[in-house]
Structures are given as C-alpha cells and as structure tokens.
Design goal:
Layout (H helix, E strand, L loop, with lengths): L1 H6 L3 E7 L5 E6 L2 E7 L6 H8 L4 E7 L9
Antiparallel strand pairs: 1-2, 1-4, 2-3
Length: about 70
C-alpha cells in the first residue's frame, strides 16, 4: 500500500491471504477510500485487517473507480 501511495495510483487491490478471508482495497490517487472482505467487514475495520497481511497473493488492477467511499 505504501508503494501505491508513493506512486499516487488509482485502482483495486485484491488481497488473498495465505490464512484468512480475501478482501479488496479501493485506492484513489494513492489513498485507500474503501475496504471490504468476504467475511462481510467493510470500511476501516476491513482495511486495517487487510493491511496486516504479510503472506498471500496481491493483485493490483489499475484504473478502477471506487464503488463507494467508506474510509
């Protein structure tokens, strides 16, 4: 997430942890504006949990507009 902030990227970051629920962070100009997990968490709670993930699969898709702002 720090690299995306530094580069001022906009897009959708999907995080599939080695252990835990998959989730997504919507990023606009390097800032996280929405987070959600498959467990139903949304907003800041989801984003904080996803930012703690250190192992798994991380896929960034540039250019996605945020569906909603929860952060």
């Amino acid at each position: 997430a720090e690299l995306l902030e530094w580069k001022k990227q906009t897009g959708l970051l999907t995080i599939k942890p080695a252990n835990g629920a998959e989730g997504r962070l919507t990023i606009v100009k390097g800032q996280i504006v929405h987070g959600e997990t498959k467990r139903g968490q949304k907003g800041l709670e989801a984003a904080l949990g996803l930012l703690r993930v250190t192992a798994g699969r991380f896929v960034f898709e540039p250019g996605h507009a945020p569906p909603t702002r929860s952060i």
